[in-house]
Every structure is written in structure tokens, then in C-alpha cells.
Fold this sequence. Notes:
The protein is of the alpha+beta class. It has two domains: 6-73, Arc Repressor Mutant, subunit A, CATH 1.10.10.10; 92-199, Winged helix-like DNA-binding domain superfamily/Winged helix DNA-binding domain (Arc Repressor Mutant, subunit A, Orthogonal Bundle), CATH 1.10.10.10. The protein is built from eleven helices and six strands. The protein has helices at 6-20, 26-32, 38-55, 75-81, 92-104, 109-116, 119-129, 148-153, 160-173, 182-192, 195-199; strands at 24-25, 59-64, 68-73, 107-108, 133-138, 141-146. The strands form two sheets. The protein has a three-stranded antiparallel beta sheet with strand order 1-3-2. It has a three-stranded antiparallel beta sheet with strand order 4-6-5. β2 (59-64) and β3 form a beta hairpin. α2 (26-32) packs across α3 and α6 (109-116) crosses α7 (119-129). The protein starts with 5 loop residues before the first helix and ends with a helix.
Amino acid sequence: xxxxxxxxxxxxxxxxxxxxxxxxxIETLGSVSKLRSRAKTKKLSRAVAELYRKNDGAVEVVELxxxxxxxxxxxxxxxxxxxxxxxxxxxxxxxxxxxLVALKQxxxxxxLVKMRGPQAYDHVKELMKGGFLKGAxxxxxxxLSTTTMFSDMFNLSREPSSIRRQMQEMIEKGALQQHEYSxxxxxxxxxxxxxxxxATQ
Length: 201
């Protein structure tokens, strides 16, 4: 089977990322674009990502760990288009809850409800259904933590110890719509302790 020329292959890679709605690895991108070389597939995928970066639009193509790429709406536009999207974007309230879990994980659902209020129950259901949170049964509650899908979609480390630092940087930049929420998180840390404190409670 003949390889596609590079310009056509880039367009196929772009189309594959668009219709997938999830991260795709190099093998998959190489298969759909009929490229035999992993190196060439990675090079052309990065070229597509660079094209979107230069365009500076509302959509971005991001290279994730393990040589995967994803096309996604930039976080600052996600809330505005959520109601017209066929894809399960995260609501603003759930995004705040997700950010708090990421900062303090592992965090019990009962502790989360104390911090975020009873709406946190609905947020947890939404986030678990979307694949962003996982929960382990501990007594009558759940011990919550983020998933690899969360890390991949937000281009974060898969190591919980690194997520906290990266999340704080994103909050400072407003990348997760957390401008007004960053002070609230700081107050909650003072009241409930750090992530390490919570892990021992």
C-alpha cells in the first residue's frame, strides 16, 4: 500500500483527531494516514499541532505522554460551547470540583462535600461518567482521585505528586477558569490541610 504524500497525510491526521474526540496514539495515526514510519507519523502530527498553535484559535492539538495526540476545545471556551456540543465537556461547577480533587487527592467524597457543598455529589457522578474521576469504596464513602484520562485531556502528569504543582500553575494562569476560585482553594487548604495531610486522615 503506497504512502500518502505528507500534505495529504497531515490532513488525514487532522481529520482523525477531529472525529475521534479522544487521544490517538502514533500507531493509530500512522495506520489511518498510511504512514509506515513512526518517526514520520510523529513529525507530521507535531506539524498539525504547530499549525493549530500558530492559528491561535479556540481549538488546539496537543501532544500527550506516550506519544499520543488529541484535538480539543481550549479550556477557556469549553463552558461557552458546552450546551451545543455533542461531546461531554465539563460544566464549570464540575470543573471546579475536579480541580479541587486534583489538588488534594486522594480525597474522600464526604470531605469534598464539606468543601464544595451537596452539589458535589452531582459533580462526582458527572466526572466519573466522563472518565475524569475514579472512586474506591472506603466505608460509606468514596476515596476519589483523578484518572489517566484527566491527565491526558489537560496535558498533566500522571503522577499525583506532580499534578498539584501543575494545577497550581494552571490556576495562576487562569487556564482552568479558576480566577475567582484560587483564593477559595487556598482557604480550604488552610482549613482542611494539604493533600498529604488529607491522605493520612
